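Supplementary Methods S3. Input chains for the assembly prediction are listed below.
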Amino acid sequence: MIVEKNNDLLNVLEMLVETPGPSGSERLIRTKIEEEIRDYVDEVYTDALGNLIARKGKKAEGGKRVMVSAHVDEIGLMVTHVDDNGFARFIAIGGVSPLTCVGGRVLFINGTPGVIGMERLEKDEQPSLTKLFIDTGATSKADSPVDVGDVAGFERPFMNLGKRLVAKSMDDRAAVAVAIEALKTLKETVNEVYFVFSVQEEVGLRGAITAAYGVDPDVGIAVDVTRTGDTPKVSRWTFR
Amino acid sequence: MARKVENAKKYAPKLGKKELELLTRLSNALAVSGDEQEVREIVYEELKEFEDYMHTDAMGNVLVKREGTGSERVRVMLAAHMDEVGMMLTKEDGDGLFEFVVVGGVDPRQLVGKPVIIGRKHVPGVIGAKAIHLTTKEERERELKVDALRIDVGLKGSNLVEIGDRATFATSLAVLGPSLRGKALDDRLGVFNLIQLLKNAPENIDLLAAFTVQEELGLRGAKVAAYQLDPDIGIAMDSTPANDLPDFDGEENTRHNTKLDGGPAIYLMDGATIGDRRLVKWLIESAESAKIPWQYRQPGRGGTDAGAIHTSRAGVPSVSVSVPQRYLHSAAGMVRIDDVLNTLKLMHTALSRLDKNILNPQERK
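Predicted structure tokens for the full assembly:
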């Protein structure tokens, strides 16, 4: 079991999931990853959209240029309006389910914490994001610590449950941790391997589009997470 | 090759007789996505002096380059789309009646009863519906779908139009005090402003202008234009809905998108782009330094040419600036003249103070 075997991987994963980085606000997570990998690569740079791109090895006879891509961004929220009483309305960055929002805690990139509340719903009405608001403790528009455009991630601390790990943004930080581990342990080969820590995947694979153009690889490998079908009464299509 | 800027002077945008005439021609022109020729011709005519520095690419985008004179110039792509939403004739039913499809995002409820113009010759027609005398209560409550509607050009008209012709609403631009009412202001206002910026280009930048096609069908023109121009940064100049009427129940309107009289709308995020925060900050600082009113376009859905530009090649930091408009994508939108001019003023002010520091990696979010 990898959790017991590899404390370094576990520590990296914990660091990754505890760092906020909704799509378009990947600065913090990018910086952390860069610090983690700098000593193991031949070259590392950030492209125009914010992808962190690290190269290991040089393409030799018979080798390929390989692009391994794991996205560093996670889903989050952006403020669309702060009302007269200080409640912040928001939209989703990426695919956010209203069901997982209600009562949830958020942490803004600017450090402000908040909690998500909901308007009164009609009988049998399902919650939608337009019915939700973030309460930052503000009492008016004037004393709100957040404004239109401020970005928040969800606040869901890392938990080690022994055989299972729990955290927000395992999508795709689990794969980022795998990519970092592969990068660290990769031996010199004939291949030139580009590890791309891509941005804005959750809003439409945007970082990978520009990174792929810049790297121009022979082979591409996306490392991501996917759903499982092994929980109670789950739809069966994901797991056979 | 690009024409160099000479003697750039202080610039104060206005909507005088000449400008209003241009805007009227632009708004009244028929240029539904895929057939932008009419607007393309106006752009060429207006920018005759830059003829040697402009060309039309394979898709129909008009690209114009104006080189500045300083060192360390930022290559700025400004995009405004020439196309508008509308209709296309698909089948003749006889008797002067034509089936049609909608091109781009048009609410079918907006269609019934509207006079239209068709094709390059602006043949007049109408999207007819049964007279109220003959309808039942049930019929009046039912929404008429596009495939149940016909464009009627009259018997003589049917010789003047053909399948594939584009059609749009027969609306003429009107000045209503401080406002303009017209069709296709999305994005002829952007086209108008981009023409003015080219004529009054600041000398500290390389201005790469793209009058794009097929934006309304998925930012298709901007995609190839951005590839060709290969800019350092990209800005889409567009128009966005103002849903600024009060809520019916007297509650605070939290979803206005933008408001008329609020000034240029600066984008943080829409369905196609997350605006580069360095560019957002630069625009806001420019507006505040010149005391130009501005507003955020509320983060939300939709998209502008920036969506295609920012993912071009190895990436282009991009943002959008829009003129707020009521009743977008309908027979007649409504904008404030001041919002149009303040958008132009903001763009000119911001571009005039732009240098390579804009792309400082330390400032990246």
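The two ends of chain A are 22 Å apart (CA to CA). Chain A touches chain B through 34 residues (CB under 8 Å).
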